[in-house]
Give the backbone structure.
Amino acid sequence: MIMNEPQQLTATATGRSLEMSYKVGAMLCRFLRGKKLVRAKRDLEAVVSLKLAVPFPRFNSSIGHTPTTAGPGKYPIKAATQILMLLKSAEANATNKGMTGDLMVSAISANKAGSFTRPGRQSRRKAKRAHVWVTLTEIAGTRKERKEKKTKQPEAAVETAPAENVPVVEKAAPKPMPKAAKPKAPAKKSQSQGA
């Protein structure tokens, strides 16, 4: 890193142990890396609605070609919704940091998370999980100046004397609430009445 170069503001978000396979997560990350945030979110929404397939250049054994990719592709709906939530979280972090320009997905990566056995009789089945982290940066030259909200300056407080002719109305005191009567217990039957 060059010392004279100003540091870029970045916003990050991390998803831990997300319900997706590492392989699907890696292909989704490859699909989104380097795109503008607006386009990345639009593409993920298209994947969820089955209008756009994610290309799978790796991990593609027995995967067929899809109409929207030049080669093998899939529609990972569940993983796409989780990464879309992660992108929205990173965008919220960016606005919280004051990043007002156009954002770009500068770094996104999926790593394998710990797996655990699925519940049930098949003890050999494992659940697949992945950790995903996203870094957003501002595109140079797109920073927008924040519009400061103009607050009204409080005008000089002018004390007004109360009018002498206005009658003062006093409120009546509230009436006390009557106590609720307790229900009486039923009378016990004597032995002579029951026989």
